[in-house]
Amino acid sequence: AGLCVCDLLVAQCDVNCCCDRDCSAEDFSLFTTCSVPVVTGDSQLCSQKAAVYSLDVEANPPERIFKLIDQVNPSIFCIHATNYEQALSLKSPEIPTPENFDQLLDKFGGATFSAEPESWNLDTDAENPPDANETSRYEFGVPVQTEDAFLRLPSPVVSSWCSDANPAGFLVNQATKCIRSVSVEKCDSIQALSMLFYINSSILAVKSVFQVNISVQSIVVQSLNGMRTLLSSTDVLRLPVVLDGLCINAVLGVNYHITHTDTGEIIEAAAAFVLGAISKETLSIEQSFEISFTQENTEPVPLSGNPGYVVGLPVRAGFQPQGYPFPAAFFFAALALSSNKHSQLTILHSTSTQDCLAAQGARAPVLFGYNMISGCKLRITAATECQPLAQTLLDVLKGQSFPEYVASFGNSQAQDVLDWVPITQLLISEQMISHTLQSSCQIPVSLGIEVKWTKYGSLVNPQARIVNVTATITSTTLKQLPSGRERIIPITSSVVFTDISSPAEPSYKAWPTIDIKLPFDFFYPFV
């Protein structure tokens, strides 16, 4: 199943994908063919097992047929055995920085360099036991394991009541709410109301060894009227107790935050709690649970989809750090402006006064799929200096730090270079006036951003992907006004989203039509 290339949907059955482990016998009965009939590993191996899939359409209902056969490679140049497991995967290269640049230059700067490890050992089973191998690292969607079972994330299953049997999946950000039955007299004995129930089991860093304790990040106490207070200390656990007919310190919400490495190893786990009081008249309470994952040495940035963009969420943008030795090797999320603190593409935000000079610094995020237009008015007098005004208008239109790149997907990471689309900037101006006329110059009056996107992936669940972004600055000629005269110029910003997806080709040919008139009783006795 790990080699199934047609398995595109997470936890869902892909149509005609016979190797999808999410498909049931009922799903297979609706398939028309197997899009991937043979699944194998490395095609360069001399001999290996091959999974062969087919459909028995004569069965009632139709069913999938699975066979495991020995496949022999006819080529004389083939791999007999993969006895060096470390060569089957690529290690993440060390990113050059000002601190390690000289060291890397000494190692790799020559005409030749050795890539062989210091100790070449073919007996990898002795050096890397199975529990320490890369295969024991967490993968997407795999339940996060603890020393006794798995990390619980209570959620409603059939009804709205909480079920503690829901495991938290690795890299799967979730937020759930459910109803819990309570009794004030027994609140100190209900495990789901106690902080210990959510932090007493250590998380396994990898799926077999190395335990990571869950620390308490913060504790918020909520009163009966809904007012919340953040406690200054988290050293002492607050367990539920009955006091004056109330159950205090009952868990109303838990927010897990998991930090992991790029190889799938959990290195830190923290939980933030919301505790509250329950009156004796209360028979049930609503609990909220949330879990999020962050890779180490990265800033948590809100996503706009997973993977494709979601309509109405901000378009994520970034820029390239100045002075970086290899410009194409690394991208950094734009965090320069307070109005752009979440790495978003922004445009001019219209104000009630419509004054361009007063609107400087006010930005509105560009929301995916929403065509937007905004603007302001500029009052020009005879005393207005053109060159400073042109730079001010450019800052009003583009902002103080206009991004250089846009994320092609809603969940694109900063280190994934190919997931970032450069912004093409164009300048359009009126025909330049004669050089003998020194009393006029060019000022920008509009910024037009066109975002071209396409549907990507499966036809059943297509994902929105940005493929091109163009920002066009239009300038006009500003002539010197006579003394005492004024002029008002409109300044506009706009964003247009264009779907350039090619229409899907039908997998069938249209039936021929016959233009004839049937007898009136042809379908008798049916209508």
From TrEMBL:
Residues 2-100 form the Tectonic-1-3 N-terminal domain. InterPro entries: TCTN1-3, TCTN1-3_dom, TCTN1-3_N. Residues 136-295, 305-499 form the Tectonic-1-3 domain. GO terms for biological process: cilium assembly; protein localization to ciliary transition zone. Pfam families: DUF1619_N, TCTN_DUF1619. GO terms for cellular component: MKS complex. Keywords: Cilium biogenesis/degradation, Glycoprotein, Signal. It comes from the Eukaryota. PANTHER family: TECTONIC FAMILY MEMBER, TECTONIC-1. Part of the tectonic-like complex (also named B9 complex). Belongs to the tectonic family. This is TECT1 protein. It comes from Zosterops hypoxanthus.
